[in-house]
Amino acid sequence: MHSSNSNSTRPPSSTDSYSERFYTYAKHGLYLGLTLGISYRLYRMFQRYQTSADIPDSIVKSHRPIHGIVIDVSDGDTLRLYHTPALQWFSAPPEKKRGMSKWSISVRISAVDAPEVSHFGKPAQPLSNEAKEYLASQVLGKRVTVVPLAKDQYGRIVGSVYYRSMYVFKYDASHEMLKAGLAVLYRGGNAQYNGEKELLERIEEEAKRAKRGVWGLKGKFETPAAYKAKHK
């Protein structure tokens, strides 16, 4: 009598076929998702932002650092950055500044307010040129890191600006302007302190006691905020 072999091959059931197809599709979907995810991350890493309008809100909300070269300083708290992402780290900005608003990022240094320079027929505040020149001496032509905190009503990036001296010592532009007495702590609406308000207040108070910069001026000092409100 011929007995059946328990190890004999049985025909695949429809359930097995569906399971195999599902596994294959899931595996291919996973590979595709990983590939697209990695490609997108690489694209974002190597993408150069021409202006602040090109910077996604997700970058600002996550405070992801942006690196670049400072190509212009317009006053004691505003500069223009030529963004240099990973693959363009050593790229140099155009020599001509004409039309730079189309290929550079306008950055408003967070937490500080420097004396107003002369513009639109309005007179300059005392020490406004000194504030501009001091900031330029610290960052102009140098590679800096900007940690974006917000975008203001003018579309500028409001952020902490960090730079190095001798490639070793790290400085915060907001701190340095306050220390020199060439800016005051910004206390207006939507002020961004990057979690350092108390520290910044102490730095400003120290400059006041030492009568540095605007705190050493004779007569009552008019803050930039008061000046702007008066000349609206």
TrEMBL record:
Cellular component GO terms held in the UniProt record: mitochondrion
GO molecular function, one term: endonuclease activity
Occurrences of domain TNase-like (ranges): 64-217
Keywords, in A-Z order: Calcium, Endonuclease, Hydrolase, Nuclease
InterPro entries per UniProt: SNase_OB-fold_sf, Staphylococal_nuclease_OB-fold
Transmembrane segments: none
Superkingdom assignment: Eukaryota
Protein family per UniProt: Belongs to the LCL3 family.
Record-given protein name: SNase-domain-containing protein
